[in-house]
Write a structure and sequence with these properties.
Length: about 280
């Protein structure tokens, strides 16, 4: 069964240029790279790249033989669409539009949205209302640009399952909005609620755009090496494939190891073994 496997850019040392990260992603055996727009000034500055800088990155993708197909927009943690602070909410909407423009210019197919109404503050009915209002506005702009967006299932109760994400997708009712779930976060949620992670994935049928493959265990949501947690990758991948998902991203983080290139090559081998097992099962 055909599929494509990408690599999250934070699996590589941050000081590397994007050109260097693209070459390393390709050399490690991955099909594409996922770029990050997080809360940092460095990543936020990417939203203001000039036309020449965007053209240069496209050339670098061609030279490396490796595209940037997805964009992880985690910056909404700091500037959430549901914030009661108008300034934060306004910038969150501006960031959303700038990310859509960047994706459109670079040929990025999918933006992963953080499934939060707010992150650093307490949520309530008002933050939920503001979030839905801002999301509707943002998705109208994304649709105009032909850019798809998918919710990441998060580590907070607001949207930690596919079922919860689907409730929002139905409310917005846009062909350009779906779900880009995180298998590790879903696994932790299922253990927390005593539910079936595979049944939850199936609830997104027809609306699953891609999937993050990440290792977790209860209470730990990141910075784990693959094979050391409790995620059943074979079953999760098999279920996602059965729902029509064909693009996946290995999500892991560089932790200072000198042999990072060997590490990401090993991640590639680990994941392809899981896909082989999922297809055979």
């Amino acid at each position: 069964m055909e599929y494509r496997l990408g690599l999250y850019e934070k699996a590589m040392p941050n000081p590397l240029s994007l050109a260097e990260k693209l070459k390393a992603t390709k050399a490690a055996g991955f099909d594409y790279m996922e770029i990050s727009i997080d809360e940092s000034e460095e990543k936020q500055a990417r939203l203001l790249w000039s036309r020449d800088e965007r053209d240069q990155l496209r050339k670098e993708m061609l030279a490396a033989g490796c595209s940037i197909d997805t964009l992880c927009l985690s910056g909404h943690r700091k500037w959430p669409l549901g914030s009661k602070n108008e300034a934060l909410r306004h910038y969150g909407q501006r960031m959303f539009r700038l990310a859509v423009d960047l994706a459109s210019d670079l040929g990025i197919r999918l933006i992963q949205l953080a499934g939060y109404d707010v992150y650093y503050d307490a949520g309530d009915d008002e933050t939920n209302r503001l979030f839905l209002q801002g999301l509707q506005e943002g998705m109208s702009y994304a649709a105009m640009k032909g850019v798809c967006c998918g919710f990441e299932t998060m580590e907070t109760p607001f949207m930690d399952t596919v079922e919860k994400a689907m409730a929002v997708v139905r409310q917005i009712n846009s062909s350009y909005l779906g779900i880009y779930p995180d298998l590790g976060n879903l696994t932790n949620a299922a253990k927390k609620y005593g539910t079936d992670v595979l049944a939850d994935i199936a609830k997104g049928k027809g609306h699953l755009f891609s999937m993050h493959l990440k290792e977790t265990r209860p209470g730990v949501y990141r910075d784990m090496k693959f094979g050391t947690g409790e995620v059943d990758f074979v079953a999760g991948i098999q279920t996602a494939l059965s729902q029509g998902v064909r693009c996946f991203v290995s999500e892991c983080w560089y932790d200072g190891q000198a042999c990072w290139m060997d590490e990401i090559a090993e991640v590639n081998r680990f994941m392809h073994q899981k896909f082989e097992a999922a297809v055979v099962a």
